[in-house]
Structure formats: structure tokens, C-alpha cells
Specification:
The structure holds 3 protein chains of 3 kinds. Chain B is 53% helix and 15% strand. Chain B contains 7 helices and 4 strands, in the order ααααββααββα. Chain B has a 4-stranded antiparallel beta sheet with strand order 1-2-4-3, with helices on one face. The two termini of chain C are 37 Å apart. Classes of the chains: A mainly alpha, B alpha+beta, C mainly alpha.
Chain lengths: 104, 197, 103
């Protein structure tokens, strides 16, 4: 699994993922699908973390779930794991970093 | 919805079907034993091992250790043993003997009532376990010299042991002793009092 | 007013299966569905003590177990697989930061 770590492309990537809700470029996305997408990505990018207990099962259908599962596995899963690994590595490195000087 | 995603619901139904079979055979107390068990069946077997030891009829629980010939070495734990007894069970066998000795029941009736409980123990307790040496049951009806009325069950760790089935079985067996003792008392001791009069 | 179609409603609605309409299901079957599945689906706690064993037969239970395994378990499994995948993927996802420019 490889992703380019250029800042712009990663942010654009993330924006594209979230914009499934915004653009409605794909009109076939149902309200239930959009609910799942917002509930999952929203919780992640708002810093709350994903908790299945927060999902309201009256807001989407079984068909929406199946559709979202395919979408998640195709577009999101790898990116989210990569982001998680990246940020963990950065945090770990930052925890070990002891700056001795100010850098002007 | 979360519990339906988290827990093995088909496993829950499997346990409920076991309890339904026990209920159908009159094991009301056995079913009540599990009234606080929830949807998470992964905890059932472990909880039932604790429950065995805490049943009111359980008078002893000990771990069994490997034994070595010609050695004082203490072996590893290889199993567990529980002893169960109740006043109703002891009175059942005492009354049967008494009724037989006083000729208030025939020899055939004595054998019938005696084997009826043995058969029930086999049906409700022993035959519910896998036959791979992990489970063993011993019944002492207290009629032999140096004997005392009790049931022992053993869990040998190199075989299978169904703790849930063991709890169901033990509770159902002692419930049956209580019922059958009441039957003997009503059926034969009332008759006895009438004959004395 | 018709119930809005949702995963939860679809899960709880007794389906016509094998020529058997929901209305033809036995009282015992319905009792099991309402007392166990519906309660759990609505997030309520279930305990064995909630069951009245006199209200269903062994046949009702066998029939309901077959129904659950064939029609409800696959639905629950889909949800369980997706959400456990997400939980796994996000275990390292930072939770403390807002990501500016993303919202």
C-alpha cells in the first residue's frame, strides 16, 4: 500500500472523500448512504472517533448498508488506515523529539 | 441494534432450546437458575463453573492433581470435583429402605423407585455430556456401610465438560428428588398411618 | 401512516417466507421474536428471566431459530462486518485534533 505523502494531494483526497455529501454529483446516493457516510467520516474528522453505538439504525436501509460497505472498502478503508498509521508515526516521533535550540 | 451485532444470537437460541427441554421435563428451578443470564453467551460456561460451586446442594469443591507413583511430588491440576447432597435426597433413599423393610412396598416397587432416580440422573445429567472422559458422575445412595448419600461429579481437563448442562442437570435432579419424596410420603406414609389406625 | 423503510424496521418486520405469511406465524413464534430479537434490536437489555417458557413450544423455537439464521442473521452479519472493519481501521486514527480545511 503506497500513498504519496504530498500535503496537497492528501488533503485533496480527504476533501474528496467527505465531499460525497456535499457535491451530490452522484445523485444515486440515497439519504441513508449519506447518513452513514456523515456519521462515520464526520465522527473521525471532528475528532470524536467512531463508535458504533452512535449509529441510528432507523436512518438507513439494508440496501444502503450494503452499498456503503462496498464504497467504504473501495475508497475509504485503505486511506483511513494509512492516515492512522501516519499520524501514529508522527506522534511517536514527536514524543521522542527534544529540541535543544530555537530554529530561526 | 448493537447487541444483535455484538453477540452470537444463534448461540443464545441454542442455550434457550436446552432450557426449554429442561422446562418441558419439569425442571422449573433449573430454568430459574439462569434468569440473570443475558445475551452474551460467551460468558455462560465460565459463569456456570462458578454457579456449580455456589448451588445450595454443593457441599464440597476441590481441584484434582496428577498423582505420581512412588513420589511425593505435587502434580499439576488435572480436574475438579464437586459433591452435592440434600436432605430430600437422603430422606428419599432412607424412606424407600424403610418402606421396603416394613413391607409397605413390594421388592419390584422398591427397584422401580430406586432405578427411576438413577435413570433420571443418567438422562438429565450424564447423557447431556460428551462421552470423551471429561465428565464423570458417581451416585451414593447412602445404603452401603460407610456410605453417605451424595452425588459426585468430576471434570477432567483432558476431556469435555459442559458446565451449563451440568448446572441444569444437577438442579433438575435435586428438584426431582424433592418431588418424588413428596410422592412417596403422600402415597405410602398416609396409607401407613391408615393401616396403623 | 406507513413505517419509513429502515434497516431496523426491515429487521423487525416478519417476512413472508416459504409461502408463510407473517400473520400465519404462531403466537409462540411471535412471542420469541418480540421478547428476544425486538428487545435486543431496540437496544434494550435481555435476560433469560424475561422469557416465559410456557408461551412457546419447542417447535416454535426451532422454527424461529431457522427463520433467524436464514433471514436475520445475514443482515446483522453485514452490519457487524462493516462496523467492526471501521473500528479496526480507526483504532489508530487520532481523535484529539480538528482537521482544518477539511470540513
Amino acid at each position: 500500500m503506497e500513498l504519496e505523502l504530498k500535503k496537497d494531494s492528501f488533503l485533496d483526497d480527504v476533501r474528496n472523500i467527505r465531499s460525497v455529501r456535499r457535491s451530490k454529483e452522484q445523485p444515486e446516493r440515497s439519504e441513508g448512504f449519506l447518513y452513514l457516510h456523515e456519521a462515520i467520516t464526520g465522527s473521525l474528522f471532528d475528532g470524536k472517533g467512531f463508535h458504533v453505538e452512535d449509529i441510528d439504525f432507523s436512518e438507513f436501509t439494508y440496501e444502503d448498508l450494503e452499498e456503503y460497505k462496498d464504497f467504504y472498502n473501495s475508497h475509504l478503508s485503505e486511506r483511513i488506515r494509512a492516515a492512522g498509521l501516519l499520524f501514529s508515526a508522527v506522534e511517536e516521533a514527536a514524543a521522542m523529539f527534544v529540541p535543544k535550540n530555537s530554529f530561526h | 441494534m448493537i447487541p444483535l451485532l455484538k453477540y452470537e444470537i444463534t448461540s443464545l437460541f441454542w442455550y434457550i432450546s436446552k432450557l426449554k427441554a429442561v422446562y418441558k421435563q419439569g425442571g422449573r428451578e433449573a430454568v430459574k437458575c439462569f434468569r440473570n443470564f443475558g445475551a452474551d453467551t460467551e460468558e455462560y460456561e465460565i459463569n456456570c463453573l462458578d454457579k456449580l460451586e455456589n448451588l445450595p446442594e454443593c457441599t464440597e469443591h476441590e481441584y484434582l492433581r496428577e498423582e505420581f507413583e512412588d513420589s511425593n511430588e505435587i502434580g499439576d491440576i488435572c480436574g475438579e470435583k464437586w459433591i452435592f447432597e440434600s436432605e430430600d435426597m437422603c430422606e428419599y433413599y432412607r424412606l424407600l429402605q424403610d418402606l421396603s423393610q416394613r413391607k409397605l412396598i413390594t421388592d419390584d416397587e422398591y427397584r422401580f423407585f430406586d432405578s427411576e432416580m438413577t435413570d433420571y440422573i443418567l438422562h438429565a445429567l450424564v447423557n447431556k455430556q460428551y462421552n470423551d472422559g471429561g465428565f464423570h458422575c458417581h451416585l451414593d445412595d447412602g445404603t452401603m456401610p460407610d456410605g453417605y448419600c451424595h452425588i459426585e461429579i468430576y471434570n477432567y481437563h483432558d476431556g469435555s465438560f459442559g458446565a451449563f448442562d451440568a448446572v441444569c442437570g444437577i438442579v433438575a435432579v435435586f428438584e426431582r428428588y424433592k418431588e418424588r419424596l413428596k410422592f412417596l410420603e403422600e402415597e405410602f406414609t398416609v396409607k401407613d398411618e391408615t393401616e396403623v389406625k | 401512516m406507513a413505517k419509513r423503510k429502515s434497516f431496523l424496521n426491515e429487521f423487525l418486520r416478519l417476512k413472508k417466507v416459504g409461502g408463510i405469511y407473517a400473520k400465519d406465524r404462531s403466537k409462540g413464534f411471535r412471542y420469541l421474536h418480540n421478547t428476544i430479537t425486538k428487545r435486543l434490536a431496540e437496544g434494550c437489555e435481555f435476560k433469560i428471566g424475561d422469557l416465559d417458557f410456557s408461551r412457546f413450544t419447542e417447535d416454535d423455537l426451532s422454527e424461529y431459530m431457522r427463520y433467524y439464521e436464514r433471514h436475520l442473521e445475514p443482515m446483522a452479519e453485514e452490519g457487524a462486518v462493516l462496523f467492526s472493519q471501521i473500528s479496526y481501521d480507526t483504532v489508530s486514527f487520532p481523535m484529539r485534533k480538528q482537521y482544518r480545511g477539511v470540513a
